[in-house]
Amino acid sequence: MGPRDRFRFRTAATSVLLSCLGAACSSTPAYTGWTPDQLYQHGEGAFGEGDWGEARRAFERLVLTFPGYERAVDARHYLAQAFFRDEEYLSAVSEFTRIVQVFPDHPRSAEAWMGLCRSYAALSPHPQRDQQYTLQARTTCQNVANDFRGQPEGDSATAVAGRMHAKLAEKTYGEGYFYYQRDIYESAELIFIEVLDQFTRTPAAPKAALRLVEIYEEWGWEEQKAEFTARLLNQYPESPEAQALTAPAATDTASTVRSRAPPGLESPGMRRPAR
């Protein structure tokens, strides 16, 4: 091997060595050598600046490396909040659940319960979709409201539980309206009655009452029509549905509730025996 070849060999070997050193440096775990206080302060600072990803990384490193740290529960709470702020709600649920189950008597417990309530509510989808998380949110928030009654967490949980209850009402009403639009009145009637019984104080209730009035007019059931007309007007007098029911008739004499079957014909939903 000549001098020029030996020089090229040494140059190539040096490049490989530098590359390996660079790779080794880049593979060094983050926060190596940091104390728990340094990790906590760094994570807290990142959280305050809205850098949720950096806050998560710092607090995750802290709770995994120093589980006995005196502020470990506070670190987990920050971690859960960072997940929530970054819209990683399932991870937030996991962290909040860990706090309330493992440290139920810690001062952070009430905040963690409220975080759990809000996380499930954030997972709640549109009313037309499956409402598993909405049910979980309503149950969790109702429990929080009961356990922390008279406290800020209890008041907040009550409001969230109310929103989830209203969404479940809208989901149920939508199922009834599906049948109503297709003139399958027997199924629609049962669901609308369920809305009135189980979701009495939601916006879906007066809508269900008005649909029942329309169904009973379609069937010619004057007694039932009068019953639910009175219920709508007495229980929900300020609702748009009650106001629509009492609005003056149009000048073209079209009635507020119109038949959904051509004259002389009977729709499938109307074929129902008298009670």
Your description of this structure?
The protein is mainly α and 275 residues long. The chain folds into two domains: 34-169, Serine Threonine Protein Phosphatase 5, Tetratricopeptide repeat (Alpha Horseshoe); 183-246 and 257-270, no CATH class. It is 69% helix and 0% strand. It has twelve helices and no strands. It has helices at 3-26, 36-48, 52-65, 72-85, 89-102, 109-123, 132-147, 152-181, 185-198, 204-219, 222-235, 240-246. Helix 6 (109-123) packs antiparallel against helix 7. The longest helix is centred in the middle third of the chain and has 30 residues, at 152-181. It is elongated, with a radius of gyration of 31 Å. The relative contact order is 0.05. The model is unreliable at 6-28 and 252-275 (pLDDT under 50).
What is the compact description of this entry?
The protein has 275 residues and is mainly alpha-helical. The protein has helices at residues 3-26, 36-48, 52-65, 72-85, 89-102, 109-123, 132-147, 152-181, 185-198, 204-219, 222-235, 240-246. It contains 12 helices and no strands.
Treating each run of at least 4 consecutive H or I residues as one helix, how many helices?
12
CATH homologous superfamily name of the largest domain? Tetratricopeptide repeat domain
**Number of domains in the coordinates?**
2
- CATH architecture type of the largest domain: Alpha Horseshoe
Question: What helical percentage do the residues reach?
Answer: 55-70%
CATH domain class of the largest domain? Mainly Alpha
Question: What's the β-strand tally?
Answer: 0
